[in-house]
Amino acid sequence: SHKVFGFPTGLGALLVRRDSAPLLFKRYYGGGTVFGTVSRSGLHLPRSDLHERLEDGTIPFLEILALEHGFQTLSKLAGPMTGIADRTFTLAKYVHDKLSVMKHYNGAPLCIIYCHENFTDPSKQGGIVNFNLLRPDGKFVGYSEVSNLASVHDIHLRTGCFCNTGACMNYLHLDTSLILNHLEAGHICGDSMDIINGKPTGSVRVSFGYMSTLKDAKTFVSFVESNFQHSTETSSDDLIDRPSTNFIGRKTDDVIVKECGDVGDGRGLEVETVEKRGREGRWIKVGDKVAIVSSNTTIGTACKTYKLDSIRLYPVKSCGSLEVSEWLIGGCGLLYDREWVVLSEHRACLSQKQEPRLSLVLPFLTPHSQHLELRFQGKASLKVSLARGGTEEGSNQTRRQGRDFSLSSGGAVCQMRVCGDKVTGTDCGEAAASWLTEALSRDCRLVRQTHQRTAKTPSSASGSGEAPLLSLANEAQYLLVTRASAEYLLSEISKRHTKQLLSLDDLVSRFRPNLVVSGNGMEPYEEDEWSEVTIGGQRFKVTGRCSRCRTICVDQTTGSRSSEPLQTLLRLRGSRATFGVYLTAQAFPPDFDDQCISVPQTLSTTTLW
């Protein structure tokens, strides 16, 4: 009944002894309790955490008692159920009929709709439309891409398998072996892995209720037309990974220069044509590193120079940035980067997705400050001591080696979750809580991290054999973006809009990078192919690309939201909407004490193709 009436689920808490966990396996399972399931065989994989295995709870006796009152209230609001059914069916049929006839420029259908009777009988079809979208070449559009873009337009959709794996297997033609392969590939219930080997793992569902209107239905149809229907060949996606120029570049001082066959002036590259998996390619050796690339790859002979253009840190997670010309680096990222977090009234980590005004909370400090100062327009500033346990945070050695911090004296200890990880923190007190509550007009607490996390990236990323340490950053120690990629994205945004929506600096700030890089001849999204970056004497391993969400739609200077740049980024880069790369610091050199990175230091990269 909580889905029908919005009624709270249960009394509030189920207390369980942790040491009884091995005995607590039900004969049934419900939504949210498994990683995956195969309906035809009963095979299912329970979630590993005890509280997740018990997510479906106990018999909902409160909701059962509330059913009569709920139906009475619904009748007062919207009339008899037959009338609600007729209205919702009519709206769903309108969307169904519109989607059914939509085609791309080449006559290919835009949509596959999953239903029994083609919306001819309201007794057999409710107020939902379940579908997947197709590109002009017949490839599926991932449901995550549709959902992410819909959220930009304030359209709320359900995606995935909707706890109905039997229907998913039937309509998407998934057999048991494919479901097991999906699990092996890392796909679990509720994630965003929407396409595996070209086949969808779920679908999109638009649902209508008693409060829905014809305007809502028309808005959704217009959204699909304007964002997924291609009217000309040139409107299809022209950039998913990166432009296809395939430039291989190395700085001449990074390799031993040898005489090379057909490479022009020689750059320390050895090239040989090879065959790999039945396809001709080119074997390229740079020093002791080897890569196989396609046979039409162009090998650049011009020397590229990159520079560190900007350094930015975010002392309070999801709040404003602090741009500096130089800064100390430590064992889990830039010194003080994302060391504090704002908790909501529900004691959950608050982000700009829920509270865009966090961007207006501006930090000020230096590596040798005694206080973190926070400013908000119209309010006196707040100063938070950097001291821990009665000592000043002057020991960069502690930060560099990644030791656990001692607790601040007098601060209440609390636990929170960051990207699924349990993190321990210390409450910064009533003065900080009151200041934030007044600034954001909602109940908030300021909490400082006390124990570092370990990243989910492989332990080899740190170069020390141990998993890299993290502050409160989502995925990695550093996030790097390039101006070349931002300029390309800005040009694509400009093509879609008659007036300029964003400046380059505004666009870059929305991606909330730690490091911004520029350089002559740099290509858009070239950073996607980097494997290592060196700044000064410090090496950083590239550990992955950064997938983007609605946060990049928040103007970091005003706190207002817009549909860009996510709308264009999804069209260019697909459902993951990647922009920028994650970095992890390699093992520190012996003379590393108090080492800084600074602007405009020279930056060199290693690329393996």
From TrEMBL:
Gene3D superfamilies: Aspartate Aminotransferase, domain 1. GO terms for molecular function: molybdenum cofactor sulfurtransferase activity; molybdenum ion binding; pyridoxal phosphate binding. Keywords: Molybdenum cofactor biosynthesis. PANTHER family: MOLYBDENUM COFACTOR SULFURASE, MOLYBDOPTERIN COFACTOR SULFURASE MOSC. Coiled coil: none annotated. GO terms for biological process: Mo-molybdopterin cofactor biosynthetic process. This is Molybdenum cofactor sulfurase. Residues 448-609 form the MOSC domain. Pfam families: Aminotran_5, MOSC, MOSC_N. It comes from Geodia barretti (Barrett's horny sponge).
